[in-house]
């Protein structure tokens, strides 16, 4: 996960919300990409918060207590294709129109919403963006990672893309999706606006 983009998202959210729960798939500490000096210092200062995130399975089952949900750019969901907790959260947030923000590779959380045979996709006909296949090829991830772009199209979502690594977000009702980590700040700001409407 990119420290700089995580710091942007976390800082904005903790400024606006009285509490922010951090969770990872198994409660494991996040795996950070290389950090610049300022990001490394921030991570060291917040080590007590970041060292022990919640496991998704232990999050409050009363999801109505949450104002929204943010999944930052990170590869974790590429390798956890059907997480039932993420699926239940996304179903609840979509049903009750609570804001959801999926940034870059964090949109791989959508794989958890794959419908059972004979059912329609939860986000059918929603307009969405995520890392493009071209971006995956350029970053040598196309052969090792499932394509979010293809998944959205196959599930009858409306996929759009901007220029590679450009600032491109899509807002459809309560759902904010960002094409890449370069869009983190504007995606989080849009998410906050939706939370305050």
UniProtKB/TrEMBL annotation:
Q: Which EC class is the enzyme in?
A: lyase
Catalytic reaction(s) noted: methylglyoxal + H2O = (R)-lactate + H(+)
List, alphabetically, the SUPFAM superfamilies matched: Class I glutamine amidotransferase-like
EC number, as in UniProt: 4.2.1.130
| Protein keywords | Endosome, Secreted, Signal
What InterPro entries does this protein's entry cite? Class_I_gatase-like, Prot/Nucl_acid_deglycase
Task: Report the domain of life of the source organism.
Answer: Eukaryota
> What subcellular compartments does it reside in?
Early endosome; Secreted
Its main subcellular localisation, reduced to a broad class, is other
Function (record text) = Component of the FERRY complex (Five-subunit Endosomal Rab5 and RNA/ribosome intermediary). The FERRY complex directly interacts with mRNAs and RAB5A, and functions as a RAB5A effector involved in the localization and the distribution of specific mRNAs most likely by mediating their endosomal transport. The complex recruits mRNAs and ribosomes to early endosomes through direct mRNA-interaction.
Q: Quote the protein name from its UniProt record.
A: Glutamine amidotransferase-like class 1 domain-containing protein 1
Organism of origin: Polyrhizophydium stewartii
Q: What's the gene?
A: PDDC1
């Amino acid at each position: 996960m990119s420290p700089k983009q995580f710091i942007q998202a976390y800082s904005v959210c903790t400024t606006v919300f009285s509490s922010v729960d951090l969770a990872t798939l198994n409660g494991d500490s996040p795996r950070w990409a290389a950090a610049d000096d300022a990001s490394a210092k921030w991570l060291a200062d917040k080590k007590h918060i970041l060292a022990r995130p919640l496991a998704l399975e232990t999050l409050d089952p009363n999801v109505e207590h949450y104002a929204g949900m943010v999944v930052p750019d990170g590869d974790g969901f590429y390798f956890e294709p059907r997480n039932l907790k993420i699926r239940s959260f996304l179903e609840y947030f979509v049903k009750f129109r609570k804001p959801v923000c999926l940034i870059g590779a964090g949109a791989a959380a959508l794989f958890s919403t794959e419908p059972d045979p004979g059912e329609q996709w939860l986000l059918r006909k929603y307009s969405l963006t995520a890392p493009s296949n071209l971006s995956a090829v350029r970053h040598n991830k196309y052969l090792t990672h499932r394509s979010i772009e293809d998944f959205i199209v196959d599930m009858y979502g409306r996929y759009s893309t901007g220029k590679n690594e450009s600032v491109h977000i899509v807002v459809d009702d309560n759902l904010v999706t960002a094409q890449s980590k370069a869009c983190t700040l504007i995606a989080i700001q849009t998410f906050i606006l939706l939370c305050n409407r």
